[in-house]
Design a protein that fits this description.
By secondary structure, the chain is of the alpha/beta class.
């Protein structure tokens, strides 16, 4: 059997357009004699459809379109597997629709209902036959490769986890060269087909790179990364087929994959917003220059408009010289990239806002955004922001709310990472000026972020001064290192390495992250490419708690508290048993006339030993007495007319109840 993987990129939720594209892919697959067609999982609803999956109208339109598509596939003699997120028992699930013989079969729901325990069975891999090949489908390859039943010929993995810079496995075929998937597939001895999506779906980005492995863990076919393709491969169990050599496989390179993922995500985001143009502010710094280069790579220079805003607050010769250098750098960048540059002059804030000039620090960004909004509206372009994850973490008020449709491609990338990203991009052709691809340029941008964070506390001069003093002592890499540890990896203050030498500065950074939560809710959309984006990490807006460390106290955990409660209950039980034994012994000693001193002696180890020896001698003596009684024939009550048991009677037959027991 031949399997076809349609690595296609479509606008999210365009049901009719997606089905039309699947029809064309099915036709191409059938021309290559494929019998099974697979399409990417997030095409219809994305990775987080929310309430969309519960919409009766959406489900109706989806099923109606799939029914028409099923008829088309039947005419071609091909079976199609189409995943989509729908609602089942008021909860969203990843359903797998099998289009076969003109019917739409919800495979996962049907299998769960047949097993009789729908809520528990929905997440198990479904297994069925297609043209005599035993096929299993999974959305979690790492888990299900170990739990598959015997007899499966092919496992089809529909990737649903978007690209994550910290997880190489999300790069599909690019992860194989470093050992991903190979060992598990070879150990199970089955074929493995990875259906990897490509493109941007809201804030999620996929890199493509679908591939097929044979039952020995060799890649026998692979689709290109970051572009559409139709991959067709014949499944031949027990037959050795040609494979791709190690040097033929793409190798995961962190910065290259990040750049391409952001480029693809930006292009799809602009298209989804119904535009083909981008407008952004060029500030002569590293973030805005790199954002302009990314926009050109995504849409081409003819579709990118740069905006330069000249500053008016120039009071010293050094400021005048710095402004001239900034203006020339922006003009050179626009010329080098081949984009149109629009220049504006910043108005006098004291006249516009009717405030003192001394209070105007930080207002430049507000004017920049007003000019950008006006330009984007005039040109029908999508506004793009150059803010980074460092801006979002420490100074989200620099943006003062998102413009309509605004996108921040670096919103989940830390500032210090931009230097390495720019170096990687410049290797393919210099687009960012060399003087901006440096630690000095990063430090200048970081100083602006810190200055704004300090400025936000201007109502408390002493506190603002202390903040400036603490943060000025940190390098940009140290600041981003603390943020990455806290935000991406969820580490507490005491777990961050820098906290041992700079506890106050680290605590301040964590406090700034916490305090920026309300402003972050209004920021532009960013592509989630890290282990934990701020969209995922969202905390309560009005949260007053900040992580200030344990200050030497032992770490309290829920498990430790529960264990202590168990030990306390066991200790109380032991104490109660000891008290009950003591009371029982006191009662027995009173009945038997044992003095408290004798009772205490019996409680010692020596007393227990002597008591045990005495009991052993008593048992031996009693056995001898009973044996003698048995030899004498015992006592028969019928021989005694008085009905009394004589003291000398032997044997057990006539013993009273307590004697026998």
């Amino acid at each position: 059997m031949k399997i076809a993987l349609a690595q296609i990129d479509m606008r999210l939720g365009d049901i009719e357009g997606i089905c039309s594209r699947i029809e064309s892919q099915a036709l191409l697959a059938r021309e290559q004699d494929a019998r099974l067609l697979c399409v990417p999982a997030p095409l219809f609803g994305g990775t987080a459809p929310g309430m969309l999956a519960e919409s009766a109208g959406y489900v109706h339109d989806l099923l109606a379109a799939l029914s028409k598509l099923a008829g088309h596939c039947e005419r071609l003699g091909i079976t199609a597997l189409v995943p989509a997120v729908v609602s089942h028992e008021d909860a969203p699930i990843l359903e797998l629709f099998m289009l076969k013989k003109g019917r739409v079969v919800p495979v996962r729901t049907l299998a769960a209902l047949r097993r009789g325990r729908a809520s528990e069975e929905l997440w198990r891999p479904v297994v069925f036959d297609v043209d005599g090949v035993r096929l299993a489908v999974t959305f979690d390859a790492q888990r299900d490769l170990e739990e598959l039943p015997q007899g499966v010929d092919v496992l089809v993995y529909f990737q649903m986890v978007p690209f994550n810079l910290a997880d190489e496995a999300t790069a599909a075929v690019a992860a194989v060269a470093d050992g991903h998937y190979r060992e598990q597939v070879a150990r199970r001895g089955l074929w493995f087909a990875c259906m990897a999506p490509v493109g941007g779906f809201d804030d999620a980005v996929f890199t493509g790179g679908s591939f097929v492995m044979d039952d020995s863990g060799r890649v026998v076919a692979a689709a290109p990364c970051f572009e559409e393709a139709l991959l067709v491969q014949e499944i031949s169990r027990g037959v050795t087929v040609p494979c791709l050599e190690g040097h033929e496989l793409p190798h995961y390179e962190r910065n290259e994959w990040l750049w391409e993922a952001l480029r693809l995500g930006l292009a799809d985001a602009v298209d989804a917003l119904g535009s083909s143009r981008i407008a952004l502010v060029l500030a002569g710094d590293l973030p805005s220059s790199l954002a302009a280069a990314l926009a050109v790579d995504a849409l081409g220079p003819r579709n990118v408009i740069g905006l330069f805003i000249a500053r008016q607050r120039i009071v010293t010769p050094s400021q005048e010289a710095a402004e001239a250098v900034r203006a020339q750098r922006v003009r050179d960048l626009a010329s080098h990239l081949g984009i149109r540059l629009v220049e504006r002059i910043e108005p006098d804030a004291t006249l516009v806002l009717d405030r003192d000039a001394a209070a105007q620090l930080g207002n430049s960004s507000a004017f920049d955004r007003l000019f950008l909004a006006d330009l984007a509206r005039e040109e029908g372009a999508v506004p793009v922001s150059a803010i980074t994850k460092t801006h979002v973490a420490l100074a989200p008020t620099m943006i003062e709310g998102a413009l309509s449709g605004e996108v921040a491609p670096f919103g989940d990338v830390y500032l210090t990472a931009l230097e390495f990203l720019a170096r990687s991009r410049n290797r393919a052709g210099e687009v960012v000026p060399r003087e901006l691809v440096s630690l000095k340029a990063v430090a200048m941008s970081m100083s602006e972020i810190v200055a704004h964070a300090v400025w936000s506390e201007r109502t408390e001069p002493s506190y603002a001064g202390k903040m400036a003093e603490l943060l000025a002592g940190l390098e940009p890499s140290q600041i981003d290192g603390v943020l990455e540890a806290h935000v991406d990896r969820g580490l507490s203050l005491d777990e961050i390495p820098l906290a041992t030498s700079e506890p106050e500065a680290c605590a301040l950074l964590l406090m700034l992250v916490r305090r920026g939560e309300p402003a972050r809710r209004a920021l532009p959309m960013a592509f989630a490419v890290s282990a934990c984006s701020f969209e995922v990490r969202a905390w309560p807006r009005g949260l007053a708690w900040s992580d200030l460390g344990r200050k030497g106290a032992e770490q309290l955990t829920l498990a430790a508290v529960a264990q202590a409660e168990i030990e306390r209950a066991e200790s109380r039980g032991a104490e109660m048993n000891a008290r009950m034994r003591s009371e029982l012994m006191s009662l027995i000693s009173g009945l038997l006339g044992i003095s408290p001193e004798q009772l205490e002696e019996l409680g010692t180890e020596e007393g227990q030993r002597r008591l045990g020896e005495g009991i052993a001698r008593f048992e031996s003596h009693m056995q001898e007495v009973f044996g003698q009684m048995a030899e004498d024939g015992g006592y028969d009550a019928s021989d005694d007319q008085t009905g009394q048991i004589p003291p000398h009677a032997s044997g057990t037959r006539g013993f009273p109840f307590f004697s026998i027991n």
